Amino acid sequence: MRAPRLRVGVLADGENLVDLTRELSAAGHAVHAVTAAADIRDYELVVIAVADDSLAETVVQLATYARRGQMFLHTSLMHGIQIMDPLETEGAIVMCAHPLGEDRWVAAATDELGETIVGLLVGELGGSVIEVDDAQRVELAAAVTYMGYVRTLTQDAVRFLDTFLGDIETSTDIVEAASGRFVPVPRLDSLIRQYESVADPGRQRLFRDLARRQAEISRAQDIELWAIQKEDR
Predict the structure, then answer these.
(1) pTM of the predicted model, to two decimals?
(2) Which residues are CB-contacts of 34 (< 8 A; sequence separation ≥ 6)?
(3) Domain 141-231, CATH 1.10.443.10 — does that match?
(4) Fold of 7-132
């Protein structure tokens, strides 16, 4: 089922990068930027893409101008659907959606109509809906941030390795290959020698923290205890 083409207003502050302008335009909707709350009356769907700590205030401002049956969708991962209550009270259809990866979206609505609409919109964007309780959203956002740290760590590993190889392409290839296979944790005595050899204080601290986390997962109690003792110093 193809959703009808909509006149969409996007209210974005530049802090939330998920404003859906490009995606909804590519799906055939008429998408326009909204700069003032009073301008939302002209749109069937209003996308709210603002910073997490500005969302509640923005929703209250928009509720002043919302009309019954108008659709509103926020794109914050941190917040669930309850933050849209002021708009729902005015008779609006409220939804939220945020992408996870290429084709999964955390989405929600307050009623069956909203669920159908947000499902159609997400489907148009090539995705499918995952439902997550509002109470779990902040921790889910933490998991996504945690995932981003992996990329940062990977890039730093390339630079660290390149210190010795002097060939960034080779260093990149080695790190990428290692990410797809199991790299065993060395014995504690070897691990300590490696730790002490790391000259950069930031890398040395992260080396210890990662050693502790891997030890927690693999139940290597000697390494975990060593890492804890290092933290306490």
Answers:
(1) 0.82
(2) 9, 10, 11, 40, 43, 46
(3) no
(4) Rossmann fold (3.40.50)
